[in-house]
Amino acid sequence: MDDKTETGEDAGGDVAEDEEMTPPENFSPVCGLIYRSSFPRPENFGFLSKLKLKSILMLIPEEYPTENMEFVKKEGIRLFQVGMSGNKEPFVHLPDDVLSKALEIAIDPSNHPLLIHCNRGKHRTGCLVGCIRRLQNWSLTMIFEEYRRFAAPKARPLDLQFIEMYNEEQVSRIASRKGWLPLHW
């Protein structure tokens, strides 16, 4: 018998090498303890466990699959759902108030560490992250570059327009009053 225990740990207490540690597609730190990704799959749960997430912000209207709900419950993660429709020509547009609701959840430190995701971690997640960058006073050039990097090969002009035109005044006021502004990000 080798020196691995029944729990998958070797005698030194390290996790077995064969345990899945695969991040979701488009995974990346955003700032502080905010992360972004595509929709997490079961093969990503080991990786996400290591982040010690307190919250997940899901930006799609569909129900979470059973295996994801079991993971969230097992890990004690709070699940927020702000169902957004993506900006698609000619008639589907993301409403400001929906994005504001998601933004308030995302920047509230009591929800961190937080994972933000939609289906592919590109467009809806990109709009939200772009608005976080606006709160951080990033230039539009840098915001659009980051958006395009994650949305490639299919950046949506309406998303870029939304990020540019989004009026973050209400969220900025709330964030300032609660001390959430990302001064230390």
From TrEMBL:
Top-level EC class as recorded in UniProt: hydrolase
A GO term for molecular function: inositol diphosphate tetrakisphosphate diphosphatase activity
Keyword Hydrolase: yes
Catalysed reaction equations from the record: 1,5-bis(diphospho)-1D-myo-inositol 2,3,4,6-tetrakisphosphate + H2O = 1-diphospho-1D-myo-inositol 2,3,4,5,6-pentakisphosphate + phosphate + 2 H(+); 3,5-bis(diphospho)-1D-myo-inositol 1,2,4,6-tetrakisphosphate + H2O = 3-diphospho-1D-myo-inositol 1,2,4,5,6-pentakisphosphate + phosphate + 2 H(+); 6-diphospho-1D-myo-inositol pentakisphosphate + H2O = 1D-myo-inositol hexakisphosphate + phosphate + H(+); 5-diphospho-1D-myo-inositol 1,2,3,4,6-pentakisphosphate + H2O = 1D-myo-inositol hexakisphosphate + phosphate + H(+)
Keyword annotations from UniProtKB, A to Z: Hydrolase
InterPro entries: PFA-DSPs (IPR020428), Prot-tyrosine_phosphatase-like (IPR029021), Siw14-like (IPR004861), Tyr_Pase_AS (IPR016130), TYR_PHOSPHATASE_DUAL_dom (IPR020422)
Gene3D superfamilies xref list: Protein tyrosine phosphatase superfamily
Protein name per its UniProtKB record: diphosphoinositol-polyphosphate diphosphatase
Organism per entry: Cyberlindnera jadinii (strain ATCC 18201 / CBS 1600 / BCRC 20928 / JCM 3617 / NBRC 0987 / NRRL Y-1542)
